[in-house]
Amino acid sequence: MNDFAWLSRTELIVGRSGLEKLAQKHVLVVGLGGVGSFAAEFICRSGAGEMTIIDGDTVDISNCNRQLPATQKNVGQSKAEWMEERLLSINPNLKIHVIKEFLNPEPMNELLEKNRFDYVVDCIDSITPKLVLIQSALHKGYPIVSSMGAGGKVDPTKIRIAPIEETYNCKLARYVRKYLQRMGIRSGFKAVFSEELPKKESLMLTDGKNYKKSAYGTMSFLPAAFGCSCASVVVNDLLAS
């Protein structure tokens, strides 16, 4: 059977050579929440041949409004395990590696040192591990796209893709730029962000678990649109490489 039969519609756009190129690529997706779960699925559906997905979290009832792995029937289940099963159901030939952990700085650096990735997708919503991933990926020379803040926003037409130094109207992007500059990093990767200002009244404080002290309310479609945008960067860049 033709392994690319399920990608016949994609082949009409990228050609057989494009499918063959994507089948040779290894993409790392860190964070499988509202943004990362959709990014991972779209990358898989585009024909990436190998993926590593990382998330140490389990499905919470509050995830059901926006996260691909979340339903009221699988609360408490590992997001990474659920995504593994789903991605393999889309492409049984996908070579997939699953890490069910929240990676601290040392394991993150070790992962990037011991593996070879063709693209890194940062869908982490906590500042410290996000910075570590970005810094480590750039140090290794990996192309990376980083998702900025999708919370508190409702207009998908305001989503933009730009070099990190050109982001604006995004609190998370501002923090990322600020702290990366202290590390001597001012550019070098693409960011997905929204120029829409967040609804301040939707902000809530959290327990600080996994480096996260606050969060904005979210709509079902905004994180998915961010994930779609991240996937588009990855696939288009890989095809152009």
UniProtKB/TrEMBL annotation:
InterPro entries: ThiF/MoeB/HesA, ThiF_NAD_FAD-bd, Ubiquitin-activating_enz. CDD domains: YgdL_like (cd00755). SUPFAM superfamilies: Activating enzymes of the ubiquitin-like proteins (SSF69572). PANTHER family: TRNA THREONYLCARBAMOYLADENOSINE DEHYDRATASE. One of its GO terms (molecular function) is tRNA threonylcarbamoyladenosine dehydratase. This is tRNA threonylcarbamoyladenosine dehydratase. GO terms for biological process: cyclic threonylcarbamoyladenosine biosynthetic process. Residues 13-234 form the THIF-type NAD/FAD binding fold domain.
